[in-house]
Specification:
This protein is α/β, with parallel strands linked by helices and 397 residues long. The chain contains 15 helices and 13 strands.
Length: 397
């Protein structure tokens, strides 16, 4: 009959409407965050294409000669970025990758070939286990084992007593999904030592390694020197457009470049990402210790404000942030919390929180707080005022 829809067509139409609604909601969030005057950190992918291009042109001219030709398949500015990265990390060489997912898959595949073991020990909350669609097993044929399920890095004892052999130990520093948590320096050294005693290599998932130096009280080369390889991101903390690097010995990087080509990562031109990464290394990297220090101030102000407001239960995790990022937990519906955060941005021009998600027992929600350059202007009083305005937008009861 004309005008009659089948059950499949009705479902398809409903799904399309739901997708459109989600897309519109996302656009609303980004518009509110981008227009806000006060924020703790810039929103990801904020601004317009024209604005981002103008910014890259202005900032890029300060760190690199823009009158040279673009890169071709990884030479030129990309090769210069690799050299700069290796120098900063204290490794023999580094290889640029379009994504961190590809970089780590290649690293662990190379180590499997070299050690003769397809077993990788890593935390179940680590990025390859949570956010890569099981690429470890589906693409690389590796088998993950978990030294611990506790929301922290595995201890030396847990690594030493793991009841089966493994060829590589992956340590995510910081462990993002556990709250951007880090071990102490002594704990890290002992855990790496336990892996060595098990005749395993150590790979660092250092997507956010750049901001770990204040917590450890060690330089990047000292931290990286504990491991056999490391992956770092150029956009998560440095503000680059995209891209990552794998760093280690020269022979490992030669092998990694071969696998990068096979995986489709030998991109024709990558100069925008490389240029923005150089800007991040020049402008953001030296400021990360400031961000880490001020994150402790912001976290303390949030804790006092939530207590003063009489919120029935809350958690700032870690209580004193290990990096410039931490979690906030509240006993509210995540959609209500997100809506309150967006309305605050739209109505007051203030971004204290962004998206909240349901995690843990029913009735709890969590969000991640990042403190960067804009957040350095916030005093504890500013945090308390913004928090009060946010809580006032939540449904009573």
């Amino acid at each position: 009959m004309i005008g009659h829809m089948t059950a499949d067509e009705e479902t398809e139409g409903t799904d399309e409407a739901r997708e459109e609604s989600a897309g519109e909601r996302r656009e609303r969030w980004f518009a509110a965050w981008s227009a806000a005057r006060l924020r703790l950190a810039d929103a990801p992918a904020s601004g317009t294409l024209a604005g981002r291009l103008a910014r890259l042109l202005e900032e890029g001219a300060e760190v690199h000669d823009l009158d040279v030709r673009p890169d071709l398949y990884g030479d030129g500015i990309v090769a210069e970025l690799e050299e700069r990265t290796a120098d900063l990390l204290g490794t023999e060489a580094a290889a640029f990758f379009p994504t961190g997912t590809m970089a780590q898959q290649v690293a662990l595949r190379c180590w499997a070939d070299r050690t003769g073991s397809t077993t990788v020990a890593l935390h179940p909350l680590s990025h390859p286990e949570r956010h890569e669609r099981h690429a470890l097993t589906q693409l690389t044929g590796l088998r993950p084992v978990h030294p611990t399920t506790e929301p922290r890095m595995p201890s030396a004892e847990e690594v030493w007593t793991l009841p089966e052999p493994f060829g590589a130990l992956l340590l995510e520093l910081p462990l993002r999904d556990a709250g951007f948590v880090l071990p102490t320096w002594d704990e890290l050294v002992e855990t790496v030592g336990a892996a060595r005693e098990r005749e395993a290599v150590v790979h660092l998932d250092g997507a956010r390694l750049w901001e770990c130096t204040p917590h450890f009280g060690r330089t990047l080369p000292e931290i990286v020197g504990l491991a056999d390889s490391v992956y770092v991101s150029y956009y998560k903390s440095l503000g680059g457009l995209s891209g990552a690097a794998l760093a280690g010995s020269s022979s490992l990087m030669e092998e990694a470049r071969a696998w990068r080509h096979r995986y489709g990562g030998q991109v024709f031109q990558q100069w925008p990402a490389a240029l923005s990464a150089l800007v991040g290394l020049e402008r953001e990297l030296p400021r990360l210790p400031e961000y880490v220090a001020h994150a402790k101030v912001v976290a303390a102000a949030l804790r006092r404000g939530l207590a003063d407001a009489g919120v029935p239960w809350f958690r700032i995790h870690p209580e004193e942030p290990h990096t410039h990022q931490f979690q906030v937990w509240l006993p509210y519906d995540p959609e209500e919390l997100t809506e309150a955060a967006v309305r605050q941005a739209e109505e007051d021009g203030t971004v204290l929180f962004r998206v909240w998600e349901a995690q843990g027992p029913p009735g709890l929600a969590v969000t991640e707080v990042t403190v960067a350059a804009p957040g350095l202007l916030w005093s504890p009083e500013d945090v308390h005022e913004a928090l009060s305005a946010f809580l006032a937008r939540l449904p009573r009861g």
